[in-house]
Amino acid sequence: MSYVITPPPVAALPVRGSDDLFPVHRIYCVGRNYAAHAIEMGHDPNKEPPFFFQKNPDNLLVGQDFPYPPMSSDVHHEIEMVVALKSGGKNIPVESAMEHVYGYAVGLDMTRRDLQGKAKDLGRPWEVGKAFEHSAPCTALVPASEIGHPSQGAVWLKINGETKQEGDLNQLIWKVPEMIAFLSELFELKAGDLIMSGTPSGVGPVKRGDQLHGFVEGVGELKLGVV
C-alpha cells in the first residue's frame, strides 16, 4: 500500500551519547505548575487541578536558533524540564509512573503571548499562541539510566547573561509521577510522548538578537539565539 502524498518525516530528538533518535508521538504541556508562575499569571495555585495543552511534534527545534514568529509582537520564554516516555497506557498508578520514563531534556515553551491573551479573552483554544512552528526548542534527551530521576535542582533562564527565570524542580506543584498518572486518565499515553513539566516565574518577552541560556540541574543546558 502506498500513500497518496509523501508522509512527513518522523519528529525526533537526539539522545546524548548515542547516534539513535527518540521518535516523538505527542507533546503535552502542563500549565501553571509552579506556584509563583500561577500567581504572576493571575491565578491561585491552591485552587486549580492540573491542566494540559499540546504542542505538535514538528514544533520541536533542535540545535538551531529560534526564528521570531509572524503575527506577534510579544513572544515569551518559558524554561522547562521535559520528560520523555518509553511506554504508556491508561490509568497509570502514581506508584509505577516512573517506570514509563525514558529520560529528560531541557526545553522552552515559546509563547505568542499576545495571541494567547486574545484567545483567552474570547474563550478560544490556545494553539495560535502555543503550537506554532519552532515553538518548542529542546536539547538532546539524557536517559534516566544515566542521571536517575531529577526531583530537585535549579531551573533558570538567562537572556544576554541576565537571569530572568529562576526556580527549583522541588517547587513543581504536580510532580512528574502525578503528571503522568493524571494525564493517563485523560489520554492513552504512548511511547514517544513528551511532557513539558511547567515553568518557574519570571516569564517575559524576547526580541531578535537576544541570546537565551536555559538550565535544568542534573539534565543539561540549552543555548540559542533569537533571529
UniProtKB/TrEMBL annotation:
Keyword Repeat: no
UniProt cross-references to Pfam families, sorted A to Z: FAA_hydrolase
GO MF annotations, alphabetized: acetylpyruvate hydrolase activity; metal ion binding
InterPro entries: Fumarylacetoacetase-like_C, Fumarylacetoacetase_C_sf
Residue stretches making up the Fumarylacetoacetase-like C-terminal domain: 27-226
Superkingdom of this protein's organism: Bacteria
SUPFAM superfamilies cross-referenced by the UniProt entry: FAH (SSF56529)
Keywords: Metal-binding
PANTHER family hit by this protein: ACYLPYRUVASE, FLUTATHIONE S-TRANSFERASE
Protein name: Fumarylacetoacetase
